Amino acid sequence: MEVRHLKLVKEVADKGSLSKAKDSLFLSQSALSHQLKEVESQLGAPLFHRVNKRLVLTGAGKIVLESAERILSELEQTEISVKKYVSGDRGSLRMATECYTCYHWLPSLMVDFNKEFPNVDIEILPEYSNDPVTHILEGKLDLAVVSGRVDNPNVKLTELFTDELLALVPSDHPWTKKKYVQAQDFADERIIIHSLPIETVTLYRKLLIPENVQPKKVIPIQITEAAVEMVKAGMGVKVLAKWIIEPYLHDKRLAVVPVTRKGLFRTWYAVTINRPDTPQYLMNFMEHLRCNIAGVCKGCQDATTPCVK
């Protein structure tokens, strides 16, 4: 039994005849008669009998009608849900970022986004932070925020913003007398990083590895507050984004130094699967990311200009 048979039974039961049902089903009366005989033959039972020129449901017909009403209603709701998903009105968004510190801006972003898309559920999955792009490709994430480009034709990159990385040091550190530090300056230092492998750390990838510099010691610490306390205690130096460092600079025990004469910068991207039918809510969420993280939106001049909407 096919959907067309269910529609036929429902319309004939409502209208009472094939001649009246043919207009709403956009078929001729003879075509409907053929379909009715076809489904009755498949089921081995008549679905209608004639009473005073009107087709009335038999017992078997009532069973089919009950299923038809339920199934057709579910199909209609499914179609509506899919259309809302495609148009961006309804759906779910699973995301992660490679930097734990980035999660602090999510609550305010989610509040703003949910005002626009109240039927989109956002799920934050920090357990996928170490390798979010792989989880995008495996279908476990819809969006990942990463620093640095990803060379894979199966994912799409949307540039979000660029930030500068500075060296955070104790206020009595010799580097505070320098205008900036270079790669070789790190050779005698204990470097605090977020996590291994070191090849994923921007400082290493962009500066130390190209200059063949190996620090005295590398200390992985994933909690920013703990890393800052270690810097205060003189147990190492840490290279952090300027926007991460700023809340801690009221402490006179800390100081910052630029990295290289031209500065050390990284670019952040939103990574999604490369597909032609990206939901509208996902594209809008990436625009919210631009505005909430970096203060950048269409019409802004640069990454330091406040976003005004």
TrEMBL record:
Alphabetical keyword list: DNA-binding, Transcription, Transcription regulation
Transmembrane annotation, as ranges: none
Matches recorded under InterPro entries: LysR_HTH_N, LysR_subst-bd, WH-like_DNA-bd_sf, WH_DNA-bd_sf
Protein name: LysR family transcriptional regulator
Species this protein is from: Fulvivirga kasyanovii
PROSITE patterns assigned: HTH_LYSR
Family statement: Belongs to the LysR transcriptional regulatory family.
Occurrences of domain HTH lysR-type (ranges): 1-58
Residue ranges of coiled coil: none
Annotated signal peptide: none
Top-rank lineage group of the source organism: Bacteria
